[in-house]
Design brief:
Layout: H1 4-10, H2 16-23, E1 30-32, E2 38-40, E3 53-59, H3 69-82, E4 87-91, H4 96-100, E5 108-109, E6 112-115, H5 117-121, H6 127-147, E7 154-159, E8 163-165, E9 175-177, E10 188-190, E11 192-194, H7 199-206, H8 210-219, E12 221-225, E13 230-232, H9 239-246, E14 253-257, E15 262-265, H10 280-289, E16 292-296, H11 301-316, E17 322-327, H12 329-335, H13 348-368, E18 373-378, H14 385-396, E19 401-405, H15 407-410, H16 416-428, H17 443-455, E20 459-462, H18 464-475, E21 483-486, E22 506-515, E23 520-525, E24 544-545, E25 551-552
Parallel strand pairs: 3-16, 3-17, 4-15, 4-16, 8-11, 17-18, 18-19, 20-22, 21-23
Antiparallel strand pairs: 1-2, 2-14, 5-6, 6-14, 7-12, 9-10, 12-13, 14-15, 22-23, 24-25
Helix pairs in contact: 3-16, 6-7, 6-9, 8-9, 12-13, 13-14
């Protein structure tokens, strides 16, 4: 059996100019980065006023068994194209951290991939490097301001801005810098975030233009003064230079699926520590160019979909026409308590024990957000008819259909049944899109709404330090912003080991901070960290380059 990278390398790509023509992108709007990838100058696209239907792909809580959300997203788009629909797919860019860590690449899998997958998973068009440079320029200008006399009266103990690097590196979580004497800076405690957790990434993904980007950058809070007033990037006169670093990156990237479906891959915040969606510009461009735009949100629906709906859709004025919830029978059996070594055997008891995880996500989309949905079962050869029938029965009770997807093995052909059901939902079912909370509540009320309505927890425990932060943020006028929950992706709770659909739990909030440029508050739960570490055996150990320049081991 070929690996994902071997499959991707075995299928010839079409020149990106042909893909652009398929999508209706004129030549003068295309900025090529080699033969197979390009950026789009949005100012040169015809402004037709068209807005295609938006389809969100989300999933159950992830497990080591895998769910295949990106693979399903790509295969669905290919399947829709095979049944004659004008479709675009819009995805996030992978972070180097997971690529070299434990998760591997994020360009889909099998015969449902976006290509060139090696480029997409590595440097691509340099967007993440630009975001990291803008982040670190702001950090450098902040520390330089203090060194040069500190005219803004910044308290070095209350600096909230961290440097970043797009790599899993636990050694950088907490550092001391500015050491070595007076000419080498002002000594202080510091730390690094992974680039995808940077507020610059969130700003980048939510900005709608260069003007909006600069306005958002100017609002970023980097520190507080000795008298507890916020200091912004605008106060440091850093905005123009940061925007200059980001202006080309802000243009969406055009690539293709293995079957030649046009794909926009742009932006990449994690969904456990950020808002987990591709850029608003790419999503809206996909809707402008296609009759249907298929996009995904990171991790399970309690994280990515919640933030996509409550933050991105609210800010960008988007309304999905349909939601696809991806699951595998293998993963559901893990949620039911089976070890990974026993997943190939039929086990209806374990499957029934794990099914509540899927059903809670389905119920949230249907009864909290009031959107039409379908469950896509990413089928494995070991799945039995009895196991499939059990899932169909349980989902039918909620009024939601189940469709088997075989896109990993068959590409778009394996996604045709799912494509037909998604088109039916878009054309025949009318949702009544509702947010899980309104903005006029207190910060505590919004956090409680997410915990109780989406996670189905019983209570929220806000620690004293977080209570103090909430009081300060409320006094500063930030209390009407939406909330971005930073939480483990593996569970509805803030404990990664509580699988399935736990009940009677309390979520602990230990820290609340403002991302004023992005336009949301971040509530950190449990032991969530904004700088991951590498596993005992990182994926990087298996990656190599042959003498003729072909990359291997990038799964």
């Amino acid at each position: 059996m070929m690996t994902d990278i071997e499959i991707a390398q075995s299928i010839p790509m079409r020149p990106i100019t042909e893909i652009a023509a398929t999508a209706g992108i004129p030549d003068d709007a295309l900025e090529q980065y080699g033969k197979y990838k390009a950026k789009i100058d949005l100012g040169k696209l015809p402004q037709t006023g068209k807005q295609g239907k938006l389809i969100l792909v989300t999933a159950i809580n992830p497990t080591p068994a895998g769910e295949g959300k990106t693979t399903t997203t790509i295969g669905l788009a290919d399947g829709m194209r095979r049944i004659g629909k004008n479709v675009m797919v819009a995805l996030r860019e992978p972070s180097l951290g997971p690529v070299f860590g434990i998760k591997g690449g994020a360009a889909g899998g099998g015969y449902a991939q976006v290509v060139p997958m090696e480029d997409i998973n590595l440097h691509f068009t340099g967007d993440f490097h630009a975001i990291g440079a803008a982040n670190n320029l702001l950090a450098a200008m902040l520390d330089n301001h203090i060194y040069q006399g500190n005219a803004l009266n910044i308290d070095p103990r209350r600096i909230t801005w961290k440097r970043c690097v797009d790599m899993n590196d636990r050694q950088l979580r907490y550092v001391a810098d500015g050491l070595g004497g007076r000419i080498n800076g002002v000594p202080r405690e510091d730390g690094y975030d992974i680039t995808v957790a940077s507020e610059i990434m969130a700003v980048f993904c939510l900005a709608t233009s260069i003007t909006d980007l600069k306005e958002r950058l100017s609002r970023i809070v980097v520190a507080y003064t000795y008298d507890e007033k916020p200091v912004t990037a605008g106060d440091l006169n850093a905005v123009g230079a940061m925007a200059a670093l980001l202006k080309d990156a802000l243009k969406p990237n055009l690539v293709q699926t293995l079957e030649g479906t046009p794909a926009l891959v742009h932006g990449g915040p994690f969904a456990n520590i950020a808002h987990g969606c591709n850029s608003v510009l790419a999503t809206k461009t996909a809707m402008q160019l296609g009759d249907y735009a298929v996009t995904e949100a990171g991790f399970g629906a309690d994280l990515g979909a919640e933030k996509f709906l409550d933050i991105k859709c609210r800010m960008a004025g988007l309304t999905p026409s349909a939601v696809v919830i991806v699951a595998t029978i293998r993963a559901l059996k893990m949620h039911g308590g089976l070890p990974k070594t026993a997943l190939a055997e039929e086990n209806l008891t374990a499957l029934e024990a794990g099914l509540p995880n899927l059903l809670r996500h389905v119920d949230n989309i249907k009864n909290v957000y009031h959107l039409p949905s379908v469950v896509a079962i990413n089928r494995f050869p070991t799945d039995t008819d009895a196991e499939v029938a059990l899932i169909i029965e349980k989902c039918k009770a909620l009024g939601v259909n189940v469709v088997l997807s075989d896109v990993w093995a068959k590409g778009g052909e394996g996604g045709e049944a799912l494509a037909r059901e998604v088109v039916r939902l878009c054309e025949e079912e009318k949702g009544d899109f509702t947010f899980s909370y309104e903005l006029d509540g207190t910060i505590e009320e919004k956090i409680e709404a997410i915990v109780k309505r989406v996670y189905r927890g019983d209570a929220v425990n806000i620690l004293p330090a977080a209570q103090k932060q909430i009081a300060q943020l409320t006094a500063l006028g930030f209390d009407k912003l939406p909330v971005c929950m930073a939480k483990t992706q593996y569970s509805f709770t803030d404990d990664k080991d509580q699988l399935g659909a736990p009940e009677g739990f309390t979520v602990t909030i230990r820290n609340v901070k403002v991302s004023a440029g992005a336009g949301f508050l971040v509530a950190l739960t449990g032991d969530i960290m904004t700088m991951p570490g590498l596993p005992k055996k990182p994926a990087a150990e298996g990656i190599d380059v042959t003498a003729d320049g072909r990359i291997t081991g990038l799964f």
